[in-house]
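Name: HTH-type transcriptional regulator CbbR
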Amino acid sequence: MPMRMNALTLKQLRALDAVAKGGSLTAAGEALGLTTPAIHTQIKGLEEALQMKLIQRAVDGAGSELTEAGHALRETALRIEDSLSQAEANLRAIQRGQVGRLTLGVVSTGKYFAPRLVKLMQDAHPEIELSLKIGNRTEILQGLERGSFDIVVMGRPPRQPEVIAEPLGDHPHGLIAPPGHPLIGHASDLDMLFAQRFISREQGSGTRILMSRWLDRVGDGRIYDTLEMDSNETIKQAVMAGLGVAFLSLHTVTDEIDTGRLVQLNAPGLPLMRHWFLVRPVKERPRDLTLRIWDEIIGLSGKFLPMPIR
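Structure predicted for HTH-type transcriptional regulator CbbR:
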């Protein structure tokens, strides 16, 4: 029997998503305000329409989890929800007399300049409602894949999903320390450098990858101590408290360096220069207002980026 995709409903897809989030039919029912049998009926309707098993008993025997087919269908359901949310936001903007709404996604390191960029865009295009969403690289990539963002500002563009990317400006990375640190003026001494504790972002973050590559290159295989933290703000506070030195985007520490709360170290091979990019998904046909904002941002030539650190 062929699949009956046109028989699927939003209610069924939302039930599947709720099972994935809650880990059981009961939890899904509580989240949606439905009984457990009602959730079972929704899932059964999906499985009959697709002729595939979508949920199974969890490995630990407690609750339910999605099958491979269930995960694949849920990804489509999430894209549908994102599209509906975008459509609602656009319609509400039109009701308010604007031409539409644009969602700008920015990786977390860019949150220090993103509001300035939004302000420039609002001043240039008051007829467009702008929404700013900040997330880590993984979250931004997931949003690109699902169509949650019209435009994204990020570092290295991904291979997948396929995107159109334009460079925006330089993105320097360097090593910072608190005032009075012994490495100030001596950061080229590798023995002193590698005796430090390096406070770093989590594994898999772009900044952590850059730091590891830099240390491996200048240290020629030397061992070093790290202390992992999950945000730039926490890392900056840890450095100021004397817990170690840190490798960070210099765009995240301009205020602290300007006011003398942190010091940029003149370490070998630093600063490392990367670039910011403006990105949009290839698979999405851009709206006219998206292209209007895209061209406006490109035309700024990085005016919104922090000034180079002196």
